[in-house]
Amino acid sequence: MFSKLRLPPPYTLGAMARGHQKIQSQQKAQEKAAKLKKQQGHGLSDQMKAAQKALVFSCAVCKSQMPDPKTYKQHFENKHPKNDLPAELKDV
Ligand SMILES: [Zn+2]
Fold first, then answer.
1. Are 69 and 92 in contact (CB under 8 A)?
2. Separation of 84 CA from ligand 1 center, angstroms?
3. Among 1, 10, 25, 64, which is least packed by CB within 10 angstroms?
């Protein structure tokens, strides 16, 4: 009778197995989040590279350097309204 009580009832085993699966899925989720974080970190450095690359925008008239085409277009429209807008800015 006592030895029978020491054996865990079947429902306990099932609960343990489910608990283990839960831990595994939590670990997987953490790994996934870590990977995502890494990917986002890469994306950020790529964006920074792109931003640095974009600094080569320079005004065709006064050679001022512009961080992005929108700023360049605004600059061009404000400072050189009599000049034709460069083709690269027409669809900005
Ligand atoms: Zn200019």
1. yes
2. 12
3. 1
Instruction: Name the burial class of residue 51, with classes exposed (0-12), middle (13-18) and buried (19+) by CB atoms within 10 angstroms of its CB.
Output: exposed
Determine the distance separating the centroid of ligand 1 and the alpha carbon of 89, expressed in angstroms.
13
Q: Going residue by residue through the chain (92 aa), what tens digit of pLDDT does each one get?
A: 555 667 666 666 666 666 777 888 889 999 988 887 777 666 667 766 665 555 678 899 999 998 888 999 999 999 999 999 988 888 87
Give 8's DSSP letter: P
Task: Give me ligand 1 centre to Cα 50, in Å.
Answer: 22
| Cα–Cα distance, 82 to 62 (Å, whole number) | 13
Locate the domains of the chain by residue range: 21-54, 55-91
> Tokens standing for 17?
């197995």
pLDDT digits (tens, 9 = 90+) for 17-38: 667 778 888 899 999 888 877 7
